[in-house]
Known about the structure:
Helices cover about 20% and strands about 30% of the residues.
Amino acid sequence: MPYSNHHNLHVIVRDIEWDLDYGHVDDGYEATAEELELPKTVVIPISYEELEDEDALHEGITDYLSDNYGWCVSGYELGWKKKDEV
């Protein structure tokens, strides 16, 4: 997601479902999102311009989450707040 200096909104990404694909784990143990300390909710700053393309917004959100937490995302819900409400 391209970040500008004009972040007028924050998107609240909530009810995040982390894609914990353990196909590469040999011992059979699969940790939960809670055990991995992955958040259920994250606040991400965005600009009004980033809202013009829904696909780009989704790609930016999932890229942000995977870049910052190291896991892919299989689903989430969105909420919105103005900058002064965060």
